[in-house]
Amino acid sequence: AAVRCQHYPPLRALQASAALRRASDEHKNEPWTSSSQQHFDSPPAGHQPEQEPQGPRPSYTGQGGQESEDYESEEQLQHRILTAALEFVPEHGWTAEAIAEGAKTLGLSVAAAGMFHSDGSELILHFVSECNTKLSKLLEKEQKLVQLGEAEKKPIDEFLRHAVEARLRMLIPYIEKWPQALSVLLLPRNIPSSLNLLTSMIDDIWYYAGDQSTDFNWYTRRAVLTGIYNTTELVMMQDSSPDFEDTWRFLENRVADAMAMSNTASQVQSTGEAVVQGLMGAAVTVSN
Amino acid sequence: RGLAAGPEMHFGFQTVTEEERREKINQVFESVAKKYDVMNDSMTLGIHRVWKDILMHKMNPSPGTLLLDVAGGTGDIAFRFINYVRSKQEHQLQRKLKHHQNLSWQEIFESYQKDKFNSLGDSQVVVCDINREMLKVGKQKAQHLGYSEGLSWVLGNAEELPFDNDKFDVYTIAFGIRNVTRIDLALQEAYRVLKPGGRFLCLEFSHVSNPLLSRLYDLYSFQVIPVLGEVIAGDWKSYQYLVESIRQFPPQEELKAMIEDAGFFKVDYENLNFGIVAIHSGFKL
């Protein structure tokens, strides 16, 4: 038997799922799919053409005739399954059952859920990544409006409140099962990925807030905002007020605290500098 | 190693033609069928039950799964599947009832009635085996243990399955693929009968890489097992064949490559007990 020395699995077209997708063209309407590639995935090995979610499929010339028009990688298929699975989460939780139902809607066998962990880790990470992407797009759009002069630039505390609230609101449809998701994200296996997603989201928010610091402030700002985000998220879990108004009020207070703290910090710093200068002057005087 | 080209093949450590191999294997299983389960327990000290449980756990079938168990002879995998799906259904039912807090007694009664008629939730398993004797033993066991719903028995050859394309959610072959004469054909058939998204699972003896363990394992295999075979089942030769065929079977990576050749994606394997047994898994995508 031939010995294989490849490091990557062969880049073959996925036959069965491609046939299914040809048959069910009308069902394709997932605005997130093609744009979700940046944050979470490492790009699949090699040079796979990005697929177009709607409209006529491009044909790839000069590819030796081997590639079918709907060439899709395993990762892209897995993304589609996970996105389809999200609508079953309110009922089944973040579980393999939800993924199985999602696979069913795509015309695949329920056994396809076996590709993923039975604790739903990939589903949750996928969801978080999609939410972060949505947030980035939203902030980018608003920034454009400000640049074009069509909107006012928000003061920093209002901007942070707005960004965190927008991001947390994405959890509302899944709020009942979200505590379960949080506990899964804290599993040692998942911590690197979930931490990564969290920090890049916080980074994004500060970037669009106009933060251009390159000094120690960069770290403190991120730590502070991460703290605000996490505590607000936990408050949201057990908030039963109408439209979560208690949560937004909590958020407002935390952001105000952070602003006050940074003012205090700079006051302490300038006071400290003044004291040091005074001491130096006294020392010079005494030495003379 | 493994399957040679041309008419020469291996039967344990002997060299035979393809025809002879089929005939010999047929005889082996006809002769061991009645004592198959007893021998499994004594040779593996009962650990084969754990292996099969792990396989079922890995499969994690949802209700409504259609399983094809090839070379399933005496029904071990099929019975485990039925148990698993049944207990999952019960869990789901309990969860549903917990959600609806204010049901009247009438409604609770009705929901139990309704679900009694599909305690398996439309899941089904088809046991396919090439050997009539093994199927016979399996059917007797099923009757004895009270399994009747969602279970069917079919006589068939793994190299040429009597089923339509795209039918099954999961295909399993536990300790059977070693005895198939043309493994590539069996893998192609597995691909054919699976639905898109369907899963291929293979539980089989494999190769131990740890040198110390490997020596102990060889010692046990060649000195103890055939003796057990003679004492318990009165059949030294069949168990000699069994042990030899394990050595002739392709190792983990090679089997993985063969599965990929048949068209499966996301092919992976999990070693159990340091490679004494391995579970290979692939998806038809």
Structure notes:
Chain B: One of its GO terms (molecular function) is 2-methoxy-6-polyprenyl-1,4-benzoquinol methyltransferase activity. The complex is a heterodimer of chains A (288) and B (285). In chain A, 58% of the residues lie in helices and 0% in strands. With 288 residues, chain A is mainly α. Chain A has a domain at 127-171 and 197-279. The longest helix of chain A has 43 residues, at 245-287. By secondary structure, chain B is of the alpha/beta class. Chain B has one domain (36-284): Vaccinia Virus protein VP39 (Rossmann fold, 3-Layer(aba) Sandwich). Chain B is built from 10 helices and 9 strands. Chain B has a 7-stranded mixed beta sheet, with helices on both faces. In chain B, helix 2 packs antiparallel against helix 8 and helix 8 runs antiparallel to helix 9. Chain B is globular and about 70 Å long. Mean pLDDT of chain B is 88; it is low at 1-5. The A-B interface holds A 1-2, 4, 9-10, 12, 14-17, 19-20, 74, 77, 96-97, 100, 103, 106-115, 118 and B 1-3, 58-62, 64-65, 169-170, 194-199, 250, 253-254, 257-258, 260, 263, 265-267, 281, 283-285.
Which properties best describe this structure?
heterodimer, A: 288 residues, mainly alpha, 10 helices, disordered N terminus, B: 285 residues, alpha/beta, Rossmann fold, 20% strand, COQ9_C (chain A), lipid binding (chain A), Ubiquinone biosynthesis protein (chain A)
Brief account:
Chain A has ten helices and no strands. With 288 residues, chain A is mainly alpha-helical. Chain A is elongated.
| Helix/strand order of chain B, N-terminal first | EEHHHEHHEHEEHEHHHEE
**Number of domain modules of chain B:** 1
CATH class of chain B: Alpha Beta
Give the overall pLDDT of chain A as a whole number. Answer: 80
Beginning-to-end CA distance, first to last residue of chain B: 30 Å
Q: Which consecutive residue ranges of chain B, at least 5 long each, have pLDDT under 50?
A: 1-5
The helical percent of chain B reads 40-55%
The total strand number of chain B stands at 9
- Helix share of residues of chain A? 55-70%
β content of chain A, as a range?
under 5%
Poorly predicted runs of chain A? 1-10, 26-70
Which two protein chains have the largest interface (Cβ within 8 Å of the partner's Cβ), and how many residues from each?
A-B, 29 and 32 residues
User: What is the approximate shape of chain B?
Assistant: globular
**Tally the helices of chain A: what do you get?**
10
For the report, how would you describe the main beta sheet of chain B? Answer: 7 strands, mixed
Structural class of chain A: mainly alpha
Provide mean pLDDT of chain B, rounded: 88
Pfam families (chain B): Ubie_methyltran
Keywords (chain B): Methyltransferase, S-adenosyl-L-methionine, Transferase, Ubiquinone biosynthesis
GO molecular function, one term (chain B): 2-methoxy-6-polyprenyl-1,4-benzoquinol methyltransferase activity
Protein name (chain B): COQ5 protein
